[in-house]
Amino acid sequence: MALAHDYLSERGGAERVVVSLTRAFPGVPLYTSVHDPDLYADLADVDVRASMLNRVGILRRRHRAALPMLPTAFGRLRVDADLVVCSSSGWAHGIATEGRKIVYCHNPPRWLYQRDQYVAGKKRYYAAGLLLDPYLRRWDQRAAHSCARYLANSSAVAHRIRSAYGIDAEVLPPPTSLDASGPRVPIEGVEPGYLVCVARMMRYKNVEQVAEAFRLLPDQRLLVVGDGGQLAELRSKAPSNVTYVGRVDDDQLRWAYANSIGLVSAAYEDFGLTPVEAALYGKPSALLHWGGFLDTTIEGITGVFFDEPTPVVIADAVRRMLLERWSAPRIATTALRFSESGFIERLHQIVDEELGEAA
């Protein structure tokens, strides 16, 4: 067996799934395009095999700059295995192997099928995407149909896989790998009693709109956790009651959830892991009524929804959430649906089925 993932140059929900995959299949090599080991202490004992692109230092920090080269990079990563489990939102499903491929799909490539969200406000990336579109689309379709089986992380993504490729995918929700009982380390300078937003600083996450909502909520504070290309820009224009702390480790993330009032997210999420993580601590969420959040959140039980990612609408949803009386134990119980042990058990069943087909 082997594992594959698009890139290991930043951390997010998809990368947490990869860590769970390595726990599900210990000793199995993990193939990727670029790898920044400083971000992945939890993969220190994993045999990570990166592509030729990993030799270029800037690409280990900015994998998107390598977009035109990634199809070739994965095509040249030849894997001698009976079965490869590919964690993919655009590249890893194209890895070259004579064996069977199972794709755990976080989303079909946004830069092909949701370009307006992915490159909003970045005209040069939009133009580059249009120029490369025919080539990338042909490559992506060939890659998708070279796979034996597709798994989707949410109902919304299963629908997109069917629309993009004509492939029916089983929904297997990703696990929450954040251990709620683990150590908690305070974030310096932050007092408990805030709302929290955990996201990569990318435009489709709509973090700026969430921050602007807090201009309308002067009596509340927002803590924003996460790194990414927009971080410096967003910090420079943040309202006085909004604090950006950048990337944190898991000990600090646990503290951030545990000491919050609740979570706020206006992201176009394919699955929506952060409300599940918040639920581990009995915290409610105010979320955009879209995508994967519809699978992970029960309105009135674990949170409230809002219909559009605008500051006025977000602020109204936060007010509604703060007025509700929530049952922390009941919220925490809902997170058990997304246990790592359940995820691994079903994945082992699927792998056994595919290895049986290969035999």
Summed up:
By secondary structure, the chain is of the alpha/beta class. About 40% of the residues lie in helices and about 15% in strands.
* Main sheet makeup: 7 strands, parallel
Outline type: globular
Strand order of the largest sheet: 3-2-1-5-7-8-9
Extended strand count: 15
What does this structure look like?
The two termini are 14 Å apart. The chain has helices spanning 13-24, 57-61, 70-75, 110-113, 115-118, 123-144, 155-165, 207-213, 231-236, 250-258, 274-280, 293-296, 311-323, 328-334, 340-358, and strands at residues 2-5, 30-32, 48-50, 78-79, 83-88, 96-97, 100-105, 149-152, 170-171, 194-198, 222-225, 242-246, 260-265, 285-288, 303-306. Helix 7 (155-165) links the parallel strand 8 and strand 9 (170-171). The chain contains 15 helices and 15 strands. The mean pLDDT is 91. The strands form three sheets. Strands 3-2-1-5-7-8-9 form a seven-stranded parallel β-sheet. Strands 12-11-10-13-14-15 form a six-stranded parallel β-sheet, with helices on both faces. The chain has a two-stranded parallel sheet with strand order 4-6. The protein has 359 residues and is of the alpha/beta class.
